[in-house]
Write a structure and sequence with these properties.
Layout (H helix, E strand, L loop, with lengths): L1 E6 L15 E6 L14 H10 L4 E10 L9 E3 L2 E3 L23 E4 L6 H14 L3 E3 L2 E4 L8 H9 L4 E3 L2 H10 L4 E10 L10 H22 L13 E4 L2
Parallel strand pairs: 1-2, 1-3, 3-10, 4-7, 5-8, 8-9
Antiparallel strand pairs: 3-9, 4-10, 6-11
Helix pairs in contact: 1-4, 2-5
């Protein structure tokens, strides 16, 4: 079995992460040294490469800012919904794999929830086995970077039911869905988004938690990834095609 793992800020390598009978194909969104800011990440290339590698599922991790004040910092969220209204890449183009008119693979991705239930279940069980608190469900809010958000922007996202935000996973979710690859997203809360708490999360605390996230992700993934061998890897939804 082959599993794609996409990592973000603070987790640039997966040293020591392995599982018997499992081939892990790793993509570092930002590359070592954080060479790529969020607006430099080539999401289409990343998902296409994982698809070409023949992965059976994709697990992605992200550090994120909590919009819901009840989310404890240092805890995990296994998202089950997505807020990505713009549906665009950083260059303004539409977020889709379907670039060419008449392509036989073109179609509309139709779904109830964008994340694969079987992959989500493996992440939740992996977190439980690792002894790390994890929220079962939550709405991931994709925001454009590289700047952080204003208080007004965060208020609007809170009204929409967003649980936590970061700057990269919206396009991944859409592209994996179009590629019919089961995908799930694991978030690690490193700070409270602007205005969520009366006092802002200190930057040094944000940096400390980003540094701590890698070990937590590794612990959970080491337990969750082997569970995918017996998981339901049905991709969410269906692609309505025209040929």
């Amino acid at each position: 079995m082959k599993v794609g793992v996409i990592t973000g800020t603070g987790t640039y390598e997966l040293a020591g992460l392995s599982a018997e009978g499992l081939e892990i194909v790793h993509v570092s969104r930002h590359e070592p040294g954080h060479r790529r800011l969020s607006n430099h990440v080539d999401h289409r290339a990343n998902i296409r490469w994982l698809r070409d590698q023949g992965v059976d599922a994709i697990v992605a991790v992200t550090v994120c800012g909590a919009v819901d004040p009840s989310v404890p910092l240092g805890s995990l969220i296994v998202f089950d919904d997505l807020h990505f209204l713009a549906n665009r890449f950083a260059d303004g183009s539409i977020c889709t794999l379907h670039e060419t008119p008449g392509d036989a693979e073109r179609g509309h991705w139709i779904y109830e929830q964008p994340f694969a239930a079987g992959v989500r279940a493996a992440l939740l069980e992996g977190a439980r086995e690792a002894g790390v608190p994890a929220r079962d469900g939550g709405c991931y809010g994709h925001v454009d970077g590289p700047r952080f958000n204003t208080r007004a922007e965060i208020r609007s996202l809170a009204l929409a039911g967003v649980t936590a935000v970061s700057q990269t996973a919206g396009p991944e979710t859409v592209l994996a869905g179009e590629a019919e690859i089961p995908y799930a997203l694991l978030g690690y809360a490193t700070d409270y988004a602007n205005g969520v708490k009366e006092e802002a999360t200190p930057v040094d605390e944000l940096v400390r938690l980003i540094g701590a996230s890698g070990a937590t992700f590794s612990d959970v993934l080491a337990r969750a990834l082997p569970l995918l061998a017996d998981a339901d890897l049905t991709p969410p939804g269906t692609i309505y095609r025209f040929e």
